[in-house]
């Protein structure tokens, strides 16, 4: 039991370029598994296509404050925030949902700098998580991803 617990222990660490391919795969798997009740298969495929621009992902993750949640054996999640306080990505693998990983990532990212506020574009799936954290909806909007319309919410949380 104790060995199993250690094997599954999650820690946060800074992003490294060698993480990029695995995080893109985690993103793909998470969107397709976790958002299936809120978005159609076509919407999920447009949001998280099989082929992604890894160079662009790596570039933005290196430019932002990016954290990775890992166990000794696998990736559990990741998130990143830019210099303005825009929370760009926050994804937790389906196998690690409801274990406090998104909360730990979000706590660390929100306090990474002295941001007056943090903003995010939340999916329908993520809306309740951010609302529980004190984010308020600024507006609902539809965006086009690969020619497919997706509903998301612009949300903001005042920190100071």
Quaternary status? single chain
In which order are the strands of the major sheet placed?
1-2-3-4-5-7-6
How many β strands by DSSP? 7
Largest sheet: 7 strands, mixed
Structural class: alpha+beta
Distance between the termini: 43 Å
Q: What's the helix count? A: 6
Radius of gyration: 15 Å
Q: Report the uncertain regions.
A: none
Q: What is the H-and-E element order?
A: HEHHHEEEHEHEE
Q: In percent terms, what proportion of residues is strand?
A: 25-35%
Helical proportion, percent range? 25-40%
Shape: globular
Mean pLDDT rating: 95
Q: What is the secondary structure topology, with strand pairs?
A:
Blueprint: H1 2-7, E1 11-14, H2 20-34, H3 41-47, H4 54-63, E2 65-70, E3 75-81, E4 86-92, H5 101-110, E5 117-123, H6 127-132, E6 136-145, E7 148-158
Parallel strand pairs: 4-5
Antiparallel strand pairs: 1-2, 2-3, 3-4, 5-7, 6-7
Question: Can you describe this structure?
Answer:
With 160 residues, the chain is of the alpha+beta class. It is 34% helix and 32% strand. It has a seven-stranded mixed sheet with strand order 1-2-3-4-5-7-6, with helices on both faces. The mean pLDDT is 95.
Q: Keywords for this structure?
A:
7 strands, alpha+beta, globular, 32% strand, 160 residues, seven-stranded mixed β-sheet
Short description:
This protein is an alpha+beta fold and 160 residues long.
